[in-house]
Amino acid sequence: MELVRRFLAPPAGSFFLFGPRGVGKSCWLADTFPDALTINLLQRDAFMKFSENPDLLFDSVTEERERRGGRPFPVVVDEIQRIPELLDAVHRSIFAYPEVRFALTGSSARKLRRGGVNLLAGRAIRKELHPFTAAELGERFSLEKALVQGMLPVVWAAPEPLETLRTYVGTYMDEEIRQEGFVRKVGEFARFLKAAAFSQCGTTNREALARECGVSGHTANAYLSILEDLLLSFSVPVFAGRPKRKLLRGEKFYFADVGIYGSLLPLGQRGRENFYRGFAMESLVAQHLRAWCAGRGADRAQLHTWRTASGLEVDFVVEEGDGALHAIEVKSGDTLHPEYFRGLRAIAEDFPEINLYVTCKTRALKFGPRKKKACKFFSDG
Questions:
Q1: pLDDT tens, residue by residue, 225-269
Q2: Which residues pair with 75 in a beta bridge?
Q3: How many helices (H) and strands (E) does the chain have?
Q4: Domains of the chain and any CATH numbers
Q5: Are 203 and 252 within 8 A, CB to CB?
Q6: Could you give the C-alpha distances from 42 to 26, 48, 296, in angstroms and in order?
Q7: In what helix (H) or strand (E) does residue 261 lie, and over which residues does it extend?
Q8: Residue whose C-alpha is closest to residue 97's, from 72, 119, 124, 77
Q9: Which residue, among 194, 196, 198, 330, has the nearest Cα to 275 in the 3D structure?
């Protein structure tokens, strides 16, 4: 598969780049910084070398700087969470050589936080790389393909995408969960993952999850935290700006990619098109909106949901930094029924300036302060 240009722009200074495995962090860095000094901690020799003596990183940067005659250059450290102690050497290097820019990738921030290590005292900002978006793929995007196999680059580019997807979670279980020692009972956590798939697009009922898996409520909460820390899931909070109605609290739960969600469902559930397609479509829209908000920055766009105690609901509300609001209701088919608009009409009563959208398959209908018009949400190649 030819290189897909990502919409992520490299920051001017040093930065952390987080994202789940297989999302394309290494490929993006190799394309963005082809002349970088690269240290890949997934390689056994590099891992052993810097584990034994983290200060060797500073020595390596010093030698590279001398070789380049003091000219600015980038340094890439892949999977920095494998040796959190390296951050002290990174901090020392940034202080000594301010012209050197570090790009530090990770598939989990959990080990960094848990170790209480030096997080560079604000000298490196945090960026995230998400699964592909339809706009990045352009004409290569297929909605039907995305709903089945998801948008992870490692899956999208594979000769056998569905087989790669099936092994993806297993690889995470072995290389992130078992080897890093995040949980003591890997089998129990695997059962929890499958149970969590039935919480997709809904409010997570931690007590029900705990009962179904035969674990304590504390353990269920810990497992959900691990999923988020490993960047395998995310949550969407309730929008509560100027509330005029009693709102239901509780965040909506999503796996980071619709393909991951589908791979965890029993085969019989995936085969029930009416069951799977609706959740899959909402999941795909959720990950696109999340990626868009992340690209804009937390101070410029935030993703929410909206649910009232009386049962009215809007799937997503995007709040922009300039005050603009967008409400999005997701439907998987092309037929629109009047009841689809109940939640949108209700939120428009509370926020008259809000823009309203109903997505149906590859198009979206926009309503709001101006007249109705059709627009595209996905571009189906």
A1: 888 988 999 999 999 887 778 888 889 999 999 999 999 988 656
A2: 37, 102
A3: 16, 13
A4: 15-128 (3.40.50.300), 134-381 (no CATH)
A5: yes
A6: 11, 10, 31
A7: helix 258-264
A8: 72
A9: 198
CB-based burial, 136-171: b 16+ in 10 Å, e otherwise = bbeeebebebbbbbbbbbbbbbbeebeebbeebbee
CA 358/CA 12 separation, integer angstroms: 38
Enumerate the β-bridge partners of residue 18.
106, 128
- Classify 182 as helix, strand or coil: coil
Return the axis-axis angle of helices 56-67 and 44-52, rounded to nearest 10°.
110
Give the model's pLDDT for residue 46. Answer: 96
Q: Tens digits of per-residue pLDDT, 99-134?
A: 999 999 998 877 776 654 556 766 788 899 999 999
Nearest of 150, 131, 147, 148 to residue 290 by alpha carbon: 131
Q: What is the pLDDT of residues 21-48, one digit of tens each?
A: 899 999 999 999 999 999 999 999 999 9
DSSP label of 82: G
User: Residue 381: which pLDDT band, with cuts at 50, 70 and 90?
Assistant: very low
- What does pTM read for this prediction? 0.89
